[in-house]
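Bench notes, afternoon.
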Amino acid sequence: MFDGILEFASVAESGSFTKAAQRMRVSTSHVSRRVSALEDRLGVKLLNRTTRVVQLTEIGVRYHQHVQAVIEGLQEANQTALSTHTELAGRIRMSGAGPFVENHVAPLLLQFAAQHPQITLEIDFETRLVDLVDQGFDFAIRYGVLAESGMIARKLSSRPLVCAASPDYLNRYPPPDHPRGLRQHSCLVINNDLWRFSGPDGKAGIELRVSGQVRANSVAVARDAAVRGLGIIYTPTSNVVSQIQDGTLVEILAEFVDTTRSHWIVYPERQHMPSRVRAAIDHLIAGLEQR
């Protein structure tokens, strides 16, 4: 029933029959025969083969996603059967971006990897919103309002926002007394140009599209632009706390900023989560609670 599946998965992950054979310590012809037999048995083409490259077909991509879950389940079962003291092993893939992930999450995951040498850690720092299931991620760090369904979410930390600009900028352009006045200002966009504020009563929501002289998917660049007087920044307080304390940035619109934002860890709902993933999540949450 499982003949050829391990060989197929190895080819899919390495992109090469030769590399797959090296990983499995068998001949290339053996891998090729087993994969071809699997395709014949299924009656579908899983791989497109050329002299230079091997690519998954559309059916092959979906099949690989399913068999990978099966393989990971077998590995998990084997670890459980062997011993509760067996070393955690296997791949962990996480998606997340921004200073919080770089300064707090990543160091804890590196610490976890150092404690478990058989763990392979992959961290994707792209700012795009990835599909965890389709793209094979074990968990992700999200900020703000969660829009994903079918996911388990656990709160990591509260991250209230602050709106600020340099004294020089505010001398040249007096600060607005309401968020709507930001449309007449240079706003420094970090990924998202839709800014959300609370009303003075903390309830009524205010949303507006903003624009400005600088747009970047880097908090550090936007913060530097704000300090240089290029516009107004809207970001979690922790990203600019030093600049506000030393006076290079001045807080504005304090009564309107959104204080409900949080960082979350999200992961697909699984009946049997691999022990390595569960251990990594528990390590991450415990570490953040101590900070």
